[in-house]
From TrEMBL:
Domain of life from the UniProt record: Bacteria
Organism: Rufibacter roseus
Lineage summary: Bacteria, Pseudomonadati, Bacteroidota, Cytophagia, Cytophagales
Protein name, per record: Hsp20/alpha crystallin family protein
Pfam families according to UniProt: HSP20
Residue ranges occupied by any SHSP domain in the UniProt entry: 22-126
Length: 127
């Protein structure tokens, strides 16, 4: 295997590959972290160069889909995904209380847990 010894060529190619990987339709490498707390968890997603308006979070049953979309300036109806990831949540999550915020340079999705312990149900009496 021959090594390319021209450092200037390698620097130019590396910049081009990185640019085309993130802007030209490639995939950016996100950083995903899950912070578990007693009352719930926080899902943190960081993706360099993505503006807050480009993020979208969709909840469907027990699945949270997080995506970042690139919109064509000439044709706003055309969108290309920069990032798309599905997270399957466990049954102990209070799905009605899920929320998302963009803080600093990261998207945060708050995933609250259901209260622990037994729950007493109200009985509907019908005669």
């Amino acid at each position: 295997m021959k090594l390319i010894k021209d450092k200037k060529f390698l620097q130019n190619v590396a910049q081009y590959i990185d640019l085309t990987n993130t802007i030209g339709g490639g995939v950016s490498q996100p950083i995903i972290k899950m912070d578990k707390r007693e009352e719930g968890a926080v899902l943190r997603v960081m993706l360099p160069g993505v503006e807050p308006e480009q993020w979208q979070v969709v909840v469907d049953r027990n699945t949270v889909t997080v995506m970042a979309l690139h919109q064509n300036e000439n044709n706003p109806a055309m969108q290309a995904p920069l990032f798309l990831h599905n997270f399957v949540l466990p049954p102990l999550v209070d799905y009605s209380q899920l929320s998302a915020e963009f803080k600093g340079k990261e998207l945060r999705i708050m995933v609250p847990f259901l209260p622990k312990g037994p729950r007493v149900l109200d009985i509907d009496y019908r005669y």
